Amino acid sequence: MTDKAKSSHDPRIFVTVGWRWSGGSGFRRVTASLCGDGWVVQEILIMRAIVTGQVGMDKKEYLEAVARLSGERGTNIDLYHVGDMMYQEAPDVRSGRILDLPISRLHSLRRATFKDIINQSADQTNVIVNTHATFRWRHGLFSAFDFDQMKELKPDLLICLVDNIEVVHHRLHNEHDIHATMKDCMVWREEEILATEVVAQAVGCRENFYILARGRHDDTVEQCLRLITRPDMRKVYPSFPMSHVMDRPDVLAEINQFRAELAKHFITFDPGDVDEKLLLDRGIEAARNGEDFVEVEPHAFGGRMISDTPIRVPVKEILDIASNVDGQIYMRDFKLVDQADMICSFIPELPGGMPGLSSGVERELQHAFEHTKEVYVVWKPKKSPSPFITETATRIFASVDEALGYFDEKSMFAQRDLFGN
Fold it and tell me: What value, to the nearest 5°, has the Cα angle with vertex 405 and ends 258 and 264?
């Protein structure tokens, strides 16, 4: 290689000269680098993500896994943990007690921390800021952001991370000296989603706000990484019956295979990753039997092992969230449909050739159709689908393989990188 060729890849001066918003692809940083043969101007895709979530999510470990996976695939992500940086600003505060500070000092610490993040990240390509939108603590409910600094950070997407409430409740009390009921946690989760969405609207990211589940058994690290670094990938809402098939392991296996195949090729917002309905059903059954506690065990649609022993949940606290469970499932699942490009529904066959079609799946399909989403259905039953399916579906398939073949033929799968991802 000649010296001139070397100089074209060895910039001596590198500066940011501006920003350009490229719609759904995110911000592009316009840079100029002074090389041996003059200035070279180029655009670099910038993905600045703000990730929120209530206390008890353990976002730090999750997001470090996201950044680590990205690094292994050749894309560096600079990760900022607002909580850790606030503790560094306040060395006199004991671990786990920063939220007990007066709100005025919390506000000052947070502003100082975000000022540092804004300055340090100015010329960084991919950035994740791990923070919160709200706190529900001893001071009551209060915000955890300032609009002016959020705008100055120039985020191009906001993600609110959510998890199953019994797991959040368990982590919260393991890590902090505070008494919060499961109902408190349910309300806080809803507030965190709403506040994050308000921030997204305020900073111009109305179409780039996402609710993402941490995952039922396996963390959704791959999905989160794709959201941040692969805006070219299609976003899909997998729709399938849950309550109808709980006692049918053969059908559950089919559904899990359907979910796994979609997750291989798309960014998926899986409703089965967060759902307290099974927990509520167990709580009601335990109350009928005069039991005081329920031990939550892993299931395709319920439970998560975060320690060697199952989580023990008071039956009374489960019953107290009964009204919240249905309302939040209804709200959250429709939001997941709204943030997807398309819905793909799996309708299994039940005994007698009847379709395993729940009212929830029917409502999801109708909602997607009315909101002009692409609607795809994998129909397994011998009984033909009704007009309410055929008239709203973009296309109906007889098998998952047929659906995947069609998606591939229509170039719906994103181009894979050198690592096959």
Answer: 45
Q: Which residue has the tokens 């997807």?
A: 340
pLDDT for 100-114, tens place per residue?
A: 999 999 999 999 999
Task: Give the per-residue pLDDT at 315.
Answer: 96
Beta-bridge partner residues of 397:
378
State the chain's mean pLDDT as an integer: 88
Label residue 320 exposed, middle or buried (CB < 10 Å: 0-12, 13-18, 19+). middle
Q: Could you give the dihedral angle defined by the CA atoms of residues 258, 159, 199 and 15, in that order, rounded to the nearest 10 degrees? A: -130
Residue for token pair 């039940």: 350
Q: How far is CA 5 from the centre of its chain?
A: 44
CA distances from 104 to 99, 101, 144, 382 (A): 11, 8, 12, 65
Strand partners, 127: 48, 78
Contact assessment for residue 28 and residue 22, using Cβ atoms and an 8 Å cutoff: yes
**Contacts of 287 by beta carbon, 8 Å cutoff, 6+ apart:** 315, 319
Phi, psi values for residue 78, rounded to 5°: -90, 125
| Four-residue CA torsion sign, 387, 376, 361, 337 | negative
- For the record, the structure tokens of 39 come out as 């200035």
Long-range Cβ contact pairs of 360-366 (< 8 A, separation 24 or more): 360/241, 360/242, 360/333, 361/239, 361/240, 361/241, 362/388, 364/237, 364/239, 364/333, 364/334, 364/337, 365/239, 365/389, 365/392, 365/393, 366/392
In order of their start, the domains of the chain are 3-43 (no CATH), 46-231 (3.40.50.300), 234-276+337-421 (3.40.50.450), 277-320 (no CATH)
pLDDT for 291-340, tens place per residue? 999 988 654 444 455 556 788 899 999 999 999 999 999 999 999 999 99
